Amino acid sequence: MIDITGMLSGIGSNTFLLAEVNEAELGPFILASVLLSLIIIYLAAKIGGELCARVNLPSVLGELVGGVIVGVSALNLIVFPEGAEPIHSVLMDVVQLTANLDADALLAVFNSQSEVISILAEIGVVILLFEIGLESDLKELIRVGPQAAVVAIVGVVVPFVAGTAGLIAFFNVATIPAVFAGAALTATSIGITAKVLAELQTLSSREGQIIIGAAVLDDVLGIIVLAVVASLAKTGEIEITNVIFLIIGAAVFLVGSILIGRLLSPLFVSLVDNMQTRGQVLISSLIFAFVLSYIAAAIQLEAILGAFAAGLILAETTKRKELEEQISPIADMLVPVFFVTVGAHTDISVLNPLNPANREGLIIASFLVVVAIIGKVITGFTVFGQEGINRLAIGVGMIPRGEVGLVFAGVGAASGVLSESLDAAIIVMVIFTTFVAPPLLRIVFNQDDDDPGLPTDADSPSEMAEATAE
Amino acid sequence: MIDITGMLSGIGSNTFLLAEVNEAELGPFILASVLLSLIIIYLAAKIGGELCARVNLPSVLGELVGGVIVGVSALNLIVFPEGAEPIHSVLMDVVQLTANLDADALLAVFNSQSEVISILAEIGVVILLFEIGLESDLKELIRVGPQAAVVAIVGVVVPFVAGTAGLIAFFNVATIPAVFAGAALTATSIGITAKVLAELQTLSSREGQIIIGAAVLDDVLGIIVLAVVASLAKTGEIEITNVIFLIIGAAVFLVGSILIGRLLSPLFVSLVDNMQTRGQVLISSLIFAFVLSYIAAAIQLEAILGAFAAGLILAETTKRKELEEQISPIADMLVPVFFVTVGAHTDISVLNPLNPANREGLIIASFLVVVAIIGKVITGFTVFGQEGINRLAIGVGMIPRGEVGLVFAGVGAASGVLSESLDAAIIVMVIFTTFVAPPLLRIVFNQDDDDPGLPTDADSPSEMAEATAE
User: Are A183 and A225 a contacting pair, CB within 8 Å?
Assistant: First the structure.
């Protein structure tokens, strides 16, 4: 027989309410709530982005702030189910105006809608990293590889050591929570930095490529650090085999996918050239990007690493320009979902100094913010053998912790090792670094523009490579 | 506090870190399964589409057949949860290779993945209808409005009366199930027809616009017929107020949205012209399309009607060309998800005559197929006042029942009024009309091309309108 219930709802069911709620009846309501969520997300992204663009700030900052406004901190329109705690969704109130669902059904629709928006946000950041990979230059990345590696490693070690030691020495924090907070200081949000670089059109500059290379390595290091501290928090020990598995997996994946990908890319181009139906370049490339993303996710890395590798490989083919044009509207559609939901997840009430409960957290947060910024800014000054490079820009580019920092705070809170004030302090640090980095990046790159010699010099290798690729 | 669980599932922590199964832990697996589903869907769509293009069949037929192959009929890769019955997902077996989830967690991932793919499919058909609206010509649609209305009404009344009466007279079916089966014969799949017309580049011909107009009206009529027969099946009575509400709602929505939309579109254009950030035309248009889709869904119509209306309105602005270019990659990405999942939902085992259980259904199905085809083909011959129009093409364009027919079969099966053989017969009729219409449409439109006088005549009004719009 045909799958009737699925067809009707257009969809499936919420896992936990399967028995009680007739999924068939909920399908149209889930679609309606997803459409309404997207309307709100796009409005928040566009209004925030346009306002920022008008005061000469990067529009991604506007998308994050727009997300904060529609999210859990203010309007409660875009909120996500949070474990046991009940949460109030104003969006569901709007849907309920015409839907008249009972409480169970409404909860099922809310959960499904949140699930879909979360996955759209994740596909958004996958597409963003694919686009960043496409706009990057593999040869330049390899050339600046050693510098990027030093930037990444210094940017992990310094904030970790300084943060952990400082918390123990100045705030009498116990070792394990201090290690956890120190670990949260190591992350770099590749998404936010890459988006700002793209907006400033400095992605293909030498500084841009060092930042991207270091941020990708930081992502891998972050996964390893998280695995270490989480197992430390849970069992008090470090599972060495697990860590070794992750390191080998990451190395084999990044090197292997690029080597094999480069071998296979002529085959890819000739396959695409022989296709006759609409969207052949785009769909073939998406298949390739999603395969690498799936492999990266399956071996416990992150999907975005696979998408970035796919973009790097396809950037070397003759299809690059066509693909960039076609991926651009898709990125425009999906990437704001990611930034707005990152903002929507962020509860800025921890920043309110009038609430006495926040004060201890804010004091610790001030320390973490200082370590977070200094620990990354100094990385720029470790870059060797690059004359006249904008070292400050590189360091500033590594500042934003973004969604990666929030994952640390989340794992810490879930494992119960973090006190409430320390958890709040980490979140304040994440918010501050995330929101301060985009305008700072614009300032430090604009200074660079005043020196007429440098941009040309920095841009030329990638421009040459681009000309060769076409 | 920050929304930690959502954030975690939203971004990808390593799963082995948390003790119990919860949503946070499943996030990366849901993303991985969605990516794997999309890979399979794109492969099925591209391989099917390319093979069909090579034998001169519409590629949408290849996407449907590709869906059947990866779906519940054959490979069980893209399957959907089906009420109480357990279902085997080969895709989940693949995910499980690297995931090692327990049974509950695996089911939760499967359900979430199905949910996301179903919503992506629905957003796909929303984008398709938006694109069809953009490529349509409101003035031409209004001009052929009376003819389209006659085609729509005849195409609903004739199959309904002939089907219901025939089932009662020849097959001794009781009245209510006969009415239900008759109702299932009334639907037209606007998605499939519109996609084939776009592929044949006959969408803006007069025939194309009559078909689109009639299919849109058929969609509205279908919703009304479904509401009537569903309440008839449930209570034995027809809820007149409900029907009147639907009719008034549909009329007010379609006329109102187009009138208000045309008034507001100069404002829209000047707003977009003043924006400075990336994707301004696309995102503003998507907000507009999703708002109308949401309103249509909220008043119990279908989201696709709102998307179509939005496309029609924006087609009259100066942004049409830019928008068509930008919406095209998004349609390439999302529309195949719709067609492949329609195919994946279709269980062709009911077509096997070697299974004795299918025989009664197949005999009834033969009757339904004949009524389904004749009942729609004759509609072309009711078109008045249009000299030299391809009447056969109009009738053939109304044949495919597609996903709309499956909804009828689903509601019938869920309400328990349909016997198993009658339900199977409806499904066979839906499969046959859906799969036969695309190649037939190509044949009847190609005949038209042989007559050199007609295409020019039929194309000119819309081409003129297009030139004016730009």
Answer: yes
A7: in domain: no
Q: From the CB of residue A401, how many other CB atoms can be counted at a distance below 10 Å?
A: 31
| CA distance, residue B430 to nearest chain A CA (Å) | 11
Q: Domain boundary at B79, B95, B118, which? A: B118
Question: Does B92 share its domain with B132?
Answer: no
Q: Does B54 touch chain A (CB under 8 A)?
A: yes
Contacts with B245 from chain A: Cβ below 8 Å: none
pTM for the full model?
0.86
Identify whether residues A191 and A292 lie together within a single domain.
Answer: yes
Are residues B74 and B138 both part of a single domain?
no
Residues B362 and B409 in one domain: yes
**Residue A284: φ, ψ to 5°:** -60, -40
Identify how many contiguous H helices and E strands chain B contains and give both numbers: 19, 0
Cα B146 to Cα A24: distance, rounded to the nearest angstrom: 35
Question: Do residues A223 and A111 share a domain?
Answer: no
Query: Taking CB atoms and an 8 Å limit, are A38 and B82 in contact across chains?
Result: no
Q: Pick the residue of B118, B126, B234, B401 with the most A CBs within 10 A to test the interface with A by mutation.
A: B118
Q: What is the CATH number of the domain that holds B180?
A: 1.20.1530.20
Nearest residue in chain B measured CA to CA from A62: B277
**Tens of pLDDT along chain B (470 residues)?**
333 333 333 333 322 223 233 455 788 899 999 999 999 999 999 999 999 889 878 888 899 899 999 998 899 999 988 655 678 899 999 999 988 899 889 999 999 999 999 999 999 989 998 998 898 888 888 888 999 999 999 999 999 999 999 999 999 999 889 998 999 999 888 888 888 898 888 888 889 999 999 998 888 888 888 878 877 777 777 778 878 888 898 889 989 998 999 899 999 999 999 998 888 899 999 999 999 999 999 988 889 889 999 999 999 999 999 999 999 999 999 999 998 998 898 888 888 888 888 888 899 999 999 999 999 999 999 988 888 889 999 999 999 988 777 777 777 777 778 887 888 889 889 889 988 989 999 899 876 554 443 343 334 334 334 433 33
Domain boundary (A63, A88, A119) is at A119
State how many domains chain B has: 2
Domain membership of residue A199 as a residue range: 132-347+355-469
Instruction: Say if residue A181 is in the same domain as residue A213.
Output: yes
Same domain, yes or no: A361 and A424: yes
Pull the structure tokens for residue A433: 């670094």
Classify residue A222: in a domain, yes or no. yes
CB contact under 8 A, A231 and B72: no
From chain A, the residues in CB contact with B38 under 8 A are 286, 290
**Looking at the DSSP assignment, which residues form a beta bridge with residue B85?**
B82
Asked whether the beta carbons of residue B122 and residue A11 sit closer than 8 angstroms, the reply is: yes
Distances (CA, A) of B139 to B142, B209, B217, B398, B466: 5, 10, 16, 22, 10
3-state SS, residue B388: coil
Residue (of B122, B103, B102, B125) closest to B114 by Cα position: B122
Residues A102 and A141 both lie in one domain? no
Q: Are A16 and B21 in contact (CB under 8 A)?
A: no
Q: How many angstroms separate the CA of residue B306 from the nearest CA in chain A?
A: 12
Q: How far is B453 from chain A (nearest CA, A)?
A: 29
CA A370 to chain CA mean position, Å: 22
